[in-house]
Fold these 2 entries.
Entry 1:
Amino acid sequence: MDLGLNGRRALVGGATSGLGLAIAHALAAEGAELLLWSRDEERLAGTAAEIAQATGVRPHIVAADATDPGAADRVAAAAGPLGGVDVLVLNAGGPPAVPPDATSPDAWRSAFQMLAVTPIELATRLLPGMRERGFGRIVAVLSSGVREPIPALAYSNAGRSALAAWLKTVSREVAADGVTVNGVLPGRIATPRVAALDEGAAAREGVPVAEVSARSQATIPAGRYGRPEEFAAVVAFLASTAASYVTGSTVACDGGMLRGLQ
Ligand SMILES: NC(=O)c1ccc[n+]([C@@H]2O[C@H](COP(=O)([O-])OP(=O)(O)OC[C@H]3O[C@@H](n4cnc5c(N)ncnc54)[C@H](OP(=O)(O)O)[C@@H]3O)[C@@H](O)[C@H]2O)c1
């Protein structure tokens, strides 16, 4: 299937690792021009070189910390030289795991800045151009925790739910202008973040990490963690011209892990 992404300009957050890295590769393979965003400039340069070698097209890069209130400004300014962004992939890191009765106001502020305020501000800046051009795709990396809150991930459950509510709200405003707005819910995809969460749980419980990981995978009907490229394929489809009538949706990519109907 031709995804119609050739020559589209895509801004991908969290692009140096895990899900974002796989999404960047998937979009580059479809011929999209890329702006990669994460915090570490050196790592970004390495990722850009790797993608350039694979595709022949060198991505632009921008370093900004999504917990910083100035991040959306910085990233939107970096998108200027592209002359517009057609595909915006909202993604960054995840907040720390804490018992839900041990959260702190500073950590709530930081989590909401990263998971809701920065992505909403960035999307708000890029939406007018998408609407004027009559084409836009916003795809946010959310979490299964938006449907079934995950124990110990209170910051993530709440911050991402706020973003999901905004995505749904704005999707209705921009749908008639050819702009779609969707979220993808990873269940457990094998990335450095999931490995770190398993290691943290193993340390708290005093058991081997292999035991935690096996227990976690046993809760997934597919019987295994997902691969980043399996997740990236869903994002690439939602970014495509083929997905023009899918908007305001949250799509799970979880090997059947979520138990509810929606
Ligand atoms: N993997 C899963 O199964 C899963 C499940 C549910 C939710 N998620 C969520 O999906 C997102 C991506 O997860 P992942 O598994 O791909 O994680 P990952 O492998 O740790 O990658 C995170 C990416 O985000 C960047 N990043 C981290 N903190 C940032 C910040 N404050 N500002 C800007 N960029 C930042 C990282 O680069 P730098 O460190 O260089 O900035 C890296 O490129 C996270 O929000 C995660 O919580 C993942």
Entry 2:
Amino acid sequence: MEVGNIFRHLLVHNEAFVKSTESTKFLAYATQQNPYITLLTCADSRVQGNILGIDIFNKIFIIRNAGNQVAINRGTVEYSILVLHTPVMLVLGHTDCGAVKFATHACITQSKEIVAMSKSFDKLINADYSTISREVKGEMLPLTIPIERGIPQLSKFGDEKKGLAYLSQINVDYQIEKTLKYYGDLVKENKLTIIGGVYDFVGAYSKELGRILITNINGNISPNGLQESARTIIKRIPNYDESSQAYKTVCQLIEEKVTRI
Ligand SMILES: [Zn+2]
């Protein structure tokens, strides 16, 4: 799309939003915000807040950068957790992440692991990042720390999309590890729950495209421990009728969506 149309869209779409939104909605929160989720996610345009609900106004405090890294926006993360007191922080990676791809390329082209890699990673190995500026590289290179941890496992994966999803998952674990160093006490006191997930729009985890898979809860990544943690969190809903259909649906979703590669 060229700039004239992009600018026209900007004007027209915002005006349509103004016309379709009751002013009372804004007035009620004119001087305060009360979000309940701190969302740290990637800047990728395929990842948008509406995957968490149709209307996330005043509900989700969104922090975005390349590769959903805590260190890049440490102050904003801290503001949301310590000043806004969101009870949940969601660290959300995604499939086909460009930042993860860059870091993976940087790792494998500089190590002997490349020999052990499956042939299906040839496309990534041969990618050319030579024209990317120092500024862009500087922001993505810290991701080589978590990615290096996952590289030895890559030969297990037959296809690149699954391997890259696995590395996004490993990156989320690392970012949660960092977050726990700073805010682990709040987690221990049950004031903060840190949830890690991978938004899958390529079908790396299941055939259902667009799913958020829950891959980490407060640093817990063991398959059984993860499911158990998820069920424990649901039990915190006051007076939740465990014989209701809604409860059964949630349990079913935990079975399907709380899982790791
Ligand atoms: Zn990304």
